[in-house]
Sequence to fold (334 residues):
Amino acid sequence: MTMEQATMQEHIKTFKKRLRGMGFQKKSDRVFWYDNNGLFYVVSFKMAGKVTAKIGFEVSHAGLFDDGTPKPRHCPVGGWLGPWGLCDGFSVHGEKEGTLQWLEAVLDADFLERAAKDFFSYFKSAADWRIASQKWQDKGCWWTDDWPAVIDGAHFLDKPIADNVGGQAVDWFVNQTPDEMRSADEFARHMQRLLAANAQRLGFYLRDKQLLVRRRSKLYDCFFLELDDFGCFCSVKPFLWSDRFNAHVLLNEECPYVNYNVELLADSVWIRTTDLIDNAQYLEELTDKADAFFLQFNTAEDWIDYLEKHEKRETVKQWFISKLKAALSQEHER
Fold:
């Protein structure tokens, strides 16, 4: 175990103590759960040897289990804690190095506690759970190696959630707002409407769904807001583009970051989607921070230099940098 891994494991140990302080029951050292009147908030820890490689957040209910107590990772309303929020099991299927490595720059007990409160606070009632589970019922089936449930729509119909499940005013919820949960598609529509309504005021135009673009001399300042798999968390992707990269089409995926948000959201990495949707002022604050980030760069070469420095920290994919450098080389050859 490396020194960095040992430090991370100490933070996780502290986080487990905080879960107990929040009222979570300890089923085992790898499974903690909170019972909100039959609505279960489950935190599970997947190990790679002696190291915790992944942390799962999951919301289930008593009706899914014969003994009335939850099993870890047996409900699709949940996923792994990852670099852009909560990643459903399929998104990280086959991930050999775990998901926590991408969060090392910010991962501590405070971060983990805040993430748990932020996520589980969306689920206050049976209605919230139904909204989130509909995505998987529509898909028909859901399965991965490391999220061992094999679940299909019939499973939910056979064991429906009771209407009176949940409803307690849990004291560690980040708010007591009812009906906060929306489907991922609805979260995305709300986000797009917010950006469309404010783009011109902020000096950008809406290029594609959640992508704001602004031309600055020969560069394009790009500000992309990406939702996680449940739409509960929103990540900020600031990146630069140039006509000199004209061998490639500007897409949201052209943001090269993996752990991209550290630049703008110190100690946060992501934000609650509803915090942004309900507060246009918050969007303005984020774009102000992005402005300061963008002004570091005056040329395409400045941007590539920055990416190469960050590649050493494994937050940027080397293939992406090579692609941009190749585009500039072709430009000089012409």
